[in-house]
From TrEMBL:
<feature type="transmembrane region" description="Helical">
    <location>
        <begin position="420"/>
        <end position="440"/>
    </location>
</feature>
<feature type="transmembrane region" description="Helical">
    <location>
        <begin position="665"/>
        <end position="689"/>
    </location>
</feature>
<dbReference type="Pfam" id="PF02687">
    <property type="entry name" value="FtsX"/>
</dbReference>
<feature type="transmembrane region" description="Helical">
    <location>
        <begin position="751"/>
        <end position="774"/>
    </location>
</feature>
<dbReference type="InterPro" id="IPR025857">
    <property type="entry name" value="MacB_PCD"/>
</dbReference>
<dbReference type="InterPro" id="IPR050250">
    <property type="entry name" value="Macrolide_Exporter_MacB"/>
</dbReference>
<protein>
    <submittedName>
        <fullName>FtsX-like permease family protein</fullName>
    </submittedName>
</protein>
<keyword id="KW-0812">Transmembrane</keyword>
<keyword id="KW-1003">Cell membrane</keyword>
<feature type="domain" description="ABC3 transporter permease C-terminal">
    <location>
        <begin position="285"/>
        <end position="398"/>
    </location>
</feature>
<dbReference type="InterPro" id="IPR003838">
    <property type="entry name" value="ABC3_permease_C"/>
</dbReference>
<dbReference type="GO" id="GO:0022857">
    <property type="term" value="F:transmembrane transporter activity"/>
</dbReference>
<feature type="transmembrane region" description="Helical">
    <location>
        <begin position="326"/>
        <end position="351"/>
    </location>
</feature>
<feature type="domain" description="MacB-like periplasmic core">
    <location>
        <begin position="20"/>
        <end position="237"/>
    </location>
</feature>
<keyword id="KW-1133">Transmembrane helix</keyword>
<feature type="domain" description="ABC3 transporter permease C-terminal">
    <location>
        <begin position="668"/>
        <end position="780"/>
    </location>
</feature>
<feature type="transmembrane region" description="Helical">
    <location>
        <begin position="371"/>
        <end position="399"/>
    </location>
</feature>
């Protein structure tokens, strides 16, 4: 019997090649889309889940009230780890990890700029990054030891097995001996390092301060097995208050590893559900609906051809076939088509994965050696086949033999209601995606068009490496003298990033209850000219004319509103035990997120610290030539280090990366949804044209025009699309309004977005249906009426 089912299935497959191709294509595209999204989701939910102790690892977080809001953040004092290990017995281990930084590695004539972290020696015992060589218990014990990844070992030594015991000079200063080679961190890990240096080296450099007010590192704790989490939370909560009497309301809490990637977004101290889980949920829904739409197409196309197999069903029932056996036969045919579509879907996924990885900035792949992939793949194909084949199987097996053999089983000149519902579902989801894609793109354009407050064109920055700080004045003079740059200054950070913020400043008339968190930024002189800042009061620093500007300060308009100075010039601000006199007020500029309001900002003068060189290229020159000439000057004064520049405008554009990816993915999948929906509409148009062939013949004999008949056949479909639009519009508005509520600066939701979606949907429907409608309208009526 099973052999007979296969024979019939393949016979029907080849007998109706056109519809078989459409069926297989629709299912394959739908399945491929779902697989791509599921690969992306699997990568997201698997972040850091490979660690053996993942259920016992937590990150230290703070929460405190600033500027009237309860804020949460995950940078902590460096002294916290040792304090936790001493004060909280439930903690088995605590480690610190500093911010990922780049260092110059030198081995003979070979030089590489490498990214990594300084960590406590217990890092490799807490986290599961297996050592290929070396001992995790001792690899980071010595101050001049270093652990490198397998990939870096190959780059440096040609073979990871040759790395142990080799000496690496870092930043042309200190020598470190390789004491371990670790597997390269996977792409689904928070930690993205090429080297690990011991924290004891940081301490030897005098950078391991015990200031409870300096939140500059991340602290992780591993709890002992079986401890009471609530009890640990209660002890952690009061740590800051216990050791820092100046912050009586400041609280700390531990945050589990399982929630780092997807849920770490807080409002007023609690998770707000706006983390990456929103993207996972959104794309999970998209995957489910795309697969459902593909299955709906199969149902529509199968039932559209049901008349061709009606007599087969009638005869089989007459000779004794049960309804159950017919259902099994039709579902079996569906599963066979699903397997063919599944194979094609895998081919499609493999072909588009490189482009999809580029779009999502991931390294997704299918592991064909994984038995779970094959088991889940077979299950996925069976599920799709059962879902797609269920309705056609039950529909066609319900035909009554007498009605079928008499030719009276068909409904009279009408679309069957379930099919109408299915088409409405398809286009509702497609229209929702169209509207959402347009609004996401609008929000990106809205934020990109926001005034930055500075001129980011022809502006580059370069980190202080090697001898740059020592030779700063010489580099600056040569860049200006050669006409390469029109202005040069040094700053504490790039113009697009905040590396320091703080509270507790003092000024005359300050409200004792004020706890404003200020961005801190430093420059020596000329930042206004270099970055094109706008001064609303006062001036920029000028050390030649005003030597006291080394202790001067510039504030932005937001800071002026907080301080409430009527005449800010000359006012004194105390910060970190130092007095600064205000010489200027600048217009607010965007330092961090273009989607958020600018924050109060303090720019300190030359007596501060610096880490970045900011260069404004001469706009009259050629950018490529300017870069080449600048590289030569840097080579002259900083010969051991590469010319490691970054364009400010390019880095600013990266602030929109997440939204850009979301828009592109939404656009991609809305396009696929429309394509698959059109296949379903085509199938339904085919069904209706066949179902009304005699009616069309009569109308033509009575004088109906081709245009009139085509309009008649298209009318019902346009009604369905318009119903879909009516349903989709409020759903899309609600979804996008909820999404936009996360942004302070948000685009309005305009009526014309819905108009575009409606017009576009109608046009797509007309184009899809018109082929079958016109084909039926121009057919010879004699052929259709001959049997009457």
């Amino acid at each position: 019997m099973i052999k007979n089912y296969f024979t019939i299935a393949f016979r029907n497959l080849f007998k109706n090649k056109g519809f078989s191709i459409i069926n297989i294509t629709g299912l394959a595209v739908g399945m491929a889309s779902a697989v791509l999204i599921l690969l992306w989701i699997q990568n997201e939910v698997s972040y850091d889940q490979f660690h053996e102790n993942k259920d016992r690892i937590y990150e230290m977080w703070n929460k405190a009230s600033f500027s009237g809001k309860l804020q949460s953040w995950n940078t902590t004092p460096k002294i916290l780890a040792r304090t936790i290990e001493r004060d909280i017995p439930e903690v088995e281990r605590a480690v610190r990890v500093n911010w990922t930084g780049s260092l110059l590695f030198s081995i003979g004539e070979k030089r590489l700029t490498v990214r990594g972290n300084m960590v406590d020696s217990g890092f490799l015992q807490m986290f599961s990054f297996p050592l290929l060589q070396g001992n995790a218990l001792t690899a980071l014990n010595d101050m001049h030891s270093i652990v490198i990844t397998q990939q870096l070992a190959i780059s440096l030594f040609g073979n990871d097995k040759e790395a142990m015991g080799k000496v690496i000079k870092i930043d042309n200063k200190d020598n470190f001996t390789v004491t371990g080679v670790v597997t390269t961190p996977p792409n689904n890990s928070r930690f993205d390092f090429e080297y690990l240096l011991p924290w004891s080296y940081l301490r030897a450099r005098g950078e391991d301060d015990e200031n409870w007010g300096n939140n500059s590192t991340r602290t992780y704790v591993m709890l002992k097995p079986g401890v009471n989490i609530s009890g640990v939370q209660a002890k952690v909560k009061v740590l800051k208050q216990k050791y820092d009497k100046d912050e009586p309301t400041w609280e700390m809490f531990i945050y589990p590893m399982s929630r780092w990637r997807l849920y770490s977004s807080f409002t007023n101290g609690v998770e707000d559900g706006n983390g990456r889980i929103t993207f996972v949920t959104m794309f999970g829904i998209i995957a489910a609906f795309i697969l459902l739409i593909a299955c709906i197409n199969f149902m529509n196309l199968s039932t559209a051809r049901s008349e061709k197999r009606a007599k087969e069903v009638g005869i089989r029932k007459v000779v004794g076939a049960s309804r159950q056996s017919l259902i099994a036969q039709f579902i079996g045919e569906s599963v066979i088509l699903s397997f063919i579509s599944g194979i094609l879907a895998i081919v499609i996924v493999e072909l588009v994965l490189p482009s999809f990885n580029s779009l999502t900035d991931k390294h997704l792949f299918i592991d064909f050696t994984d038995i779970y992939f094959w088991l889940s793949g077979i299950g996925f194909i069976l599920f799709t086949g059962l879902l797609a084949g269920s309705y056609p199987a039950f529909f066609m097996s319900s035909f009554k033999p007498v009605s079928v053999l008499k030719g009276t089983f068909k409904k009279a000149n009408a679309l069957i209601t379930p099919r109408k519902v299915l088409v409405v579902m398809q286009f509702t989801f497609a229209i929702i995606l169209i509207i959402c894609t347009i609004i996401v793109k609008q929000q990106i354009d809205y934020a990109q068009s926001r005034e930055t407050g500075y001129n980011k064109n022809n502006l580059i920055y370069h980190p202080f490496t090697g001898d740059i700080e020592k030779n700063y004045l010489l580099i600056k003079q040569e860049l200006l003298a050669a006409g390469i740059a029109s202005s040069v200054t040094k700053t504490s950070a790039p113009l697009t990033q905040s590396w320091s913020d703080g509270w507790g400043q003092e000024w005359e008339g300050k409200d004792p209850n004020d706890k404003t968190d200020f961005y801190r930024y430093n420059e020596d002189e000329g930042l206004g000219q270099t970055a094109g800042l706008t001064f609303v009061q006062g001036r920029d620093f000028d050390l030649k004319k005003f030597p006291t500007d080394s202790n001067a300060m510039i504030i932005n308009e937001s800071a002026l509103k907080v301080m409430k100075f009527k005449n800010p010039i000359g006012q004194i601000v105390k910060d970190n035990g130092q007095e600064w006199h205000i010489v200027g007020v600048i217009k607010d500029f965007i330092l961090t997120s273009p989607y958020e309001p600018t924050r109060p900002m303090l720019i300190a003068g030359a007596n501060a610290w610096f880490q970045t060189l900011l260069i404004k290229f001469n706009e009259q020159g050629n950018t490529a030539d300017n870069l080449q000439k600048a590289a030569a000057i840097f080579k002259k004064y900083n010969p051991e280090y590469p010319f490691d520049y970054t364009f400010v405008d390019k880095e600013y554009e990266q602030k929109f990366d997440n939204e850009q990816r979301t828009a592109k993915l939404a656009g991609l999948f809305s396009g696929l949804t429309i394509f698959i929906s059109c296949l379903g509409l085509f199938g339904l148009a085919t069904y209706m044209a066949e179902n009304r062939i005699k009616e069309i013949g009569v109308r033509k004999v009575m004088g109906a025009s081709v245009a009139g008949i085509a309009a008649l056949l298209s009318k019902d479909f346009l009604k369905l699309v318009l119903i879909s639009f009516v349903i989709a519009s409020p759903v899309a508005w609600w979804a996008m309004n909820s999404w936009l509520n996360d942004y302070t600066y948000r685009t309005p939701i305009n009526w014309w977005v819905f108009a575009i979606a409606a017009i576009g949907s109608v046009l797509i429907a007309i184009i899809t249906v018109s082929y079958q409608a016109i084909k039926a309208a121009v057919a010879n009526p004699v052929k259709s009426l001959r049997t009457e």
